[in-house]
Amino acid sequence: MSWTNPYHTRSGDPVSAAGAVIRFPAYVLWTLWGFGVSWFETRDFRRVWQGFPAVLLAGLLVVLLLRQGRPASSNVVDSYREKAQQATRLEEFDRADFYFRKLEQLAPGDSRIRYDHALLHAARDDYPQAVHIMLGLIQDEDQSDDEKAHLWLARSAIEGRLDMDEPLAFAKIHLNQLLEENPNHRYAHFFYSQLFLRMNDLDNAIRHLEPVASQSPDLQMQLAALYGLQGDRTRSRSLAQEAADLLEQGIRDTQTADVSKWLQLAGCYLLLEDYESAVTILKQAITKFDDEACRKTLGRTYVRWSDDVSAKSPENIGRRMELLQEALRVAPDDPLALQRIVEIAGTEGPAAAEAKARLRESLADGKAPAVIHFALGTMEAAAGNMEAALRHLDQARAINPHTAVTLNNLAYVLLHRETPDLERALDVSNQALRMVPAAAPFRETRGQILTSLGRYAEAVSDLEFALPKIPRVPTQISIHQSLAACYRELGDAELARIHEQKAEQLQSKLSDTDTGTPSLDPFKSDR
After folding, report:
1. What pLDDT digit, counting tens, does each position of 309-361 carry?
2. Run of H or E residues at 201
3. Does 152 share its domain with 54?
4. What is the distance between the alpha carbons of residues 268 and 282, in angstroms, rounded to a whole number?
5. Residues 28 and 148 in one domain
């Protein structure tokens, strides 16, 4: 009996590459059958050992052929998905990309994986691609992740993360789709309340939360906060206390490992202005979970407690400093705690010296050196000590060169030194603006530098951009004065005169308390 190798044509010529792929199953059968016939004809057992490698190869090819196209097990997919999610949370984006590439091969079209991949794009600030994936999830036949996609799109639009002309109208479309399917969808109502809050419409924000607040303590807490903003302290405290009781009972009965419940309970106590209880809950949560969010919240709670002391007993600066020092102990880089200390340091008397001493102690202890150097540099600049400010801000930049507000303040100091370094100031200012192009204080800083360099047309562009966006009167005066100088040099005497008049009018209205360094904004970029 004669057998023909399927990898050769009848003429004996090799089969083409495309034909070889098509004939792959034939090759497997030919190998197995040919070996069997050969052994049967000879009955020579020595041929068994000689052909054994061919049998193994053929068996392996059969196994691979049978396994081809089989979906990966759910355990393998879940394992890769968990690793991808963890890498995204840790901002290890290249590693997350690797896992998503594997998942695309193992489970193509899985809506859960597509949703997670969209979150990775969002974490990398690639919101257009994230939106594209989310909209695709909504439009496909699989509806399992539609609700999450609608909520993500609405939330991102409300929080201003999406670059579009009418983000709130876009958010309404997605929230309305959720409410059409479920009129009592609690988180659709919650985000609607956030939407109206962005529009400063407290009445409608409350109207959306009231029908669903009883569904969960966290919504009760949100409604309590809205009543507080509205000035209804009685209803605010009542709801906050009710939510606190429910959360405390739930934590006690279930011994939950959900750290968010502890954070919500601390939030209720803050609404009740019971700072000691809030601190106690957060310390317990830190002991139990060792969670970074709890530490940051505890630091911010001490700041709020300090603000409460300031409102009720403004003379008790010592107690404020104790609370702010506690805030820096648990959250060394908390910007609000540092800002409050800088504010105290800007006052007169022993409190200012104590604030400076606390900052220097924190620096000596090695706590958040970049932020402390930034705070000390900003404080020295506000006091007019530009050389000391330069030393601290240079240190802050060396430790963390990617903080835009540090670069802006460093540019300001370089401009206002006794011997200005204008070229370096412009270079540093440009670096800050590459990070935050629309920050009005940063544009104002660069406009002042360009004015000093005699590049008047460029300066006008920056200064006119910043003018309507900066509310501080001293800074507005400085901008008008610089614009007057620029237009005078550009040959427009009329516009120069108008800006001079504006500066004089503002100067006459400037109160004695609204003074200070014109364009130095310690902790904000006014994005």
Report:
1. 989 988 777 788 788 878 877 887 677 887 787 777 666 667 667 767 777 77
2. none
3. no
4. 12
5. no
